[in-house]
Write a structure and sequence with these properties.
Blueprint: H1 108-139, H2 151-160, H3 164-175, H4 179-195, H5 202-225, H6 248-267, H7 272-293, H8 299-320, E1 335-336, E2 343-344, E3 356-360, H9 367-379, E4 385-389, H10 397-405, E5 410-415, H11 417-427, E6 434-438, H12 444-448, H13 455-464, E7 466-477, E8 480-485, E9 488-492, H14 493-499, H15 503-509, H16 512-520, E10 527-533, E11 539-543, E12 545-549, E13 571-576, H17 580-592, E14 611-616, E15 618-631, E16 634-655
Parallel strand pairs: 3-4, 3-5, 5-6
Antiparallel strand pairs: 1-2, 7-8, 7-16, 9-12, 9-15, 10-11, 10-15, 12-13, 13-14, 15-16
Helix pairs in contact: 1-5, 1-8, 3-7, 4-5, 4-6, 5-6, 5-8, 6-7, 6-8, 7-8, 9-13, 10-11, 14-16
Amino acid sequence: MPTDIPGRRDTRTDEQPPDALSVPDVPNVPDVPNVPDVTAVPDVTDAPAVSGDAAVPSGGAAVPAATAVPHHTGRPGETAPHAPGGPPATGLPGPLPGAADATGRPSGASSGTARAAGVIAAAAVCQAALMVGLGLLITGPAARVWPLSSEDGVNDALERARTGTLDTVSSVVSEAGNTGTVVLGTLVSCLALLLIPRLPRLREAVFLAVAVSLQSLVFLVVTEAVDRTRPDVDRLDASPPTSSYTSGHTGAATALYAGLAVLVLHRAKGPWRRVVAALLLLLPLLVGLARAYRGMHHPTDVAGGLLNGGLSLLIVGRALLAGPHIPAPLPSGATRHPGTTRIARAAPTGPGPGRTTVIHNPTVTDEAARDAVRGVLERHGHRSVRFVPTTADDPGEGPTRNALRDGATLVVVCGGDGTVRAVAEALAGTGTPLAVVPCGTGNLLARNLGLPLEPAKALSAALRGTPRRIDLGRVEGDGLPPAHFTVMSGAGLDAAMLEGTSDRAKATWGWPAYLVAGLRELRAPRTRLTLRLDGAPPLRRGARMVLVANAGTVQGGTALVPAARPDDGLLDLMVLDPRGPAGWLTAVRSLLRRRPSPPTGPRTDTSRRAVEYFTFRRAEIHFDAPQPRELDGDPVAPGRRLSAEAVPGALTVLVPERGE
């Protein structure tokens, strides 16, 4: 197979087209001949959600040019062809926990868990070092510096303010941070998260248990390293043998009660959640005040306990709650499909009832369609529903941002790919789930999520499904401000085809109208372009069409970019450059072929490639001449430059369970 750059993976060609099928858990898959032994790209499928312009998740390394790998068999690092019978590209399948996926890498569950454990361990060492350093500073050079020099006065004032009532109240509050209380509270909370129906929340339970445990571990290390006597006042409790710095009661209370507050804000719905979270956050402060009142700690000991508990929550929450690292256990009656981490439940549920906003394009959703959507939502318990139409000036981004400001817990979008893209632009990085109701011509995101194309059925399947984080693509260029796309962005033939299809033709013929417009554009001239992928040396190519794909399935079930998946943290690039009738036939055959041909060995004639594929995180594309461009099916301003990058896990969508 041809090699354009030494050390860089080759591209797929029309002689060896890609395939969208993923390999099930099959041991001892033989290596593909003629594939060089190169380093696999780090796994990013369980990257945390990001917002803004970040292209690589925390913990994910950028792809060095020398480690890029052959793409002809699918994702980076693959050494075996796709086996038939794997999960279709329209879903979001993943390998079984602990098994190797189609790329030969560890599965998302095992690698994500290992990564989370590594992050927590490394950060815990830094946390302990910070707390010890602060303790040595407080008991050493800074002890006589204000405000530390006035701590004894604070303890004396609290001793003088004691009353019988305050003694009783402080004793009760102090018990909320006692070791036995915190251990029992953590155990009960974790069991509730695991056993209460409609939860179960393994990740949240692990988060709480690990945060409390980490705080305790750091506390023990600090008390061994920092020797500080307790305040010189009458103490109302028996003095434990540990150092006064830090306050263990305060740190444990912070880890437990503030951790519960995080879970309430993170998962619960309804106006009461803020009140409950505020009360939970108040408890550690009251415990710290009670410990100082009872003469057990200096004020800086209490502050150290708050800091220790808060850092534990921050570290563990960032590692476990920011992305899909730990799979949930199988609920009763559930079965796990081979080759996927998706769970089939007898009665799966989506987001619970809350404030729901429906963003709808009035040109494709009439009153009857809106009534059908309202009926489906009501059957699933969503009764507080607000319908907001899009306009020609604002296709959905503004109404969605307003809905978020108003407290929407679920956003439903009814429209075509352009409306979906505008709503996704506003939802990127927020974590608010999106339910897609296909009402347009292409409906590409709905197809790639495995949703039915009938609006009512699609919404019902989504509401019975589960939230799943998928990637977005981010593009910009000359005359094109930064924007996200959900499925595809391109330049050349496809953009000209979309621009040449009238609204009337789409309304009359549906998506086949694009084919008619495409035939008119076949005689458009080729262009030359320069590609730079992930910082590697530039490549020169000729092309009639360049397509950047976050997902690869288009109308008719055709996998136009078969290896593209919306949850792998990567984007795929297709360069189409057929020449003459034979070249077009070869290109069509490659695009329609479901499985790759057997390897044919190296090619030296690179001038006749009809289709090439690349995988990347960031790409810079420069055209020699201005080209028409498009975003998720909507034409945008033409130009000569297109920059694209993956934004992993940026959008939360409701996807149907397998078998829907």
